[in-house]
Amino acid sequence: xxxxxxxxxxxxxxxxxxxxxxxxxxxxxxxxxxxxxxxxxxxxxxxxxxxxxxxxxxxxxxxxxxxxxxxxxxxxxxxxxxxxxxxxxxxxxxxxxxxxxxxxxxxxxxxxxxxxxxxxxxxxxxxxxxxxxxxxxxxxxxxxxxxxxxxxxxxxxxxxxxxxxxxxxxxxxxxxxxxxxxxxxxxxxxxxxxxxxxxxxxxxxxxxxxxxxxxxxxxxxxxxxxxxxxxxxxxxxxxxxxxxxxxxxxxxxxxxxxxxxxxxxxxxxxxxxxxxxxxxxxxxxxxxxx
Length: 290
Hints:
The chain is mainly beta. It has two domains: 3-102 and 149-249 and 274-282, Sandwich (Immunoglobulin-like), CATH 2.60.40; 105-147 and 252-271, no CATH class. 3% of the residues lie in helices and 45% in strands. Strands 3, 4, 7, 8, 9, 13, 14, 16, 17, 18 and 19 form an eleven-stranded mixed beta sheet that branches. The longest helix is centred in the N-terminal third of the chain and has 8 residues, at 3-10. It starts with a helix and ends in an 8-residue tail after the last strand.
């Protein structure tokens, strides 16, 4: 399929501004010898509204453990707000697609509390506080948060003789959503996931699910084992879901610090990394009956 044709499929669900990274395989099924297209985008919902700028790295792992590595760069095919990576299906089995993306660090100043502010594309340690221009700022300005942003994405493509149990094994992302149920049951109803942070179950984190074509969010909070169940019921012939989690300003990941601030401010600043992860699931991992 030509990239222009793929783009038409992806554009059917255009939405708002973007700050998360995800993969949307054109199909969950492939024959040996097929070429698999992987659109990679960035957005708050299921459609890409900005290119994934900065450093982005794609790894494709076959069922036998063969690895393909690719760094997205200026030579990577691009159309609209999508980057495109493709690979050949050289052997049967389940292919796991793993992406890491970072656009660097961000610091959010509240210049005129309670709400007015602006973003600086730097981490707190990189800012020259002595030369910071605070003209027009209130005397109680402060830094709300400062963080390096790390985004992860994961998806699957199945060829003949796929071992679907591999999809339920962690692949080592810092923040990872692991599908615990068989991924061939997507669309049939309740589906269980586990969220891991640094390889360990992460409790009390919100997990959302959005169906492509309907960005109404389903939400649930993980239990003490990092597990959560979401209803992915969808009678459509083809259904695709984005499952997401975000550490945000979780105090287990970031810390409250005293950064430079206005003379009348007593506000602490939340400083530390933010991890975001998006798992893409479909209901077409099994070869359709002809």
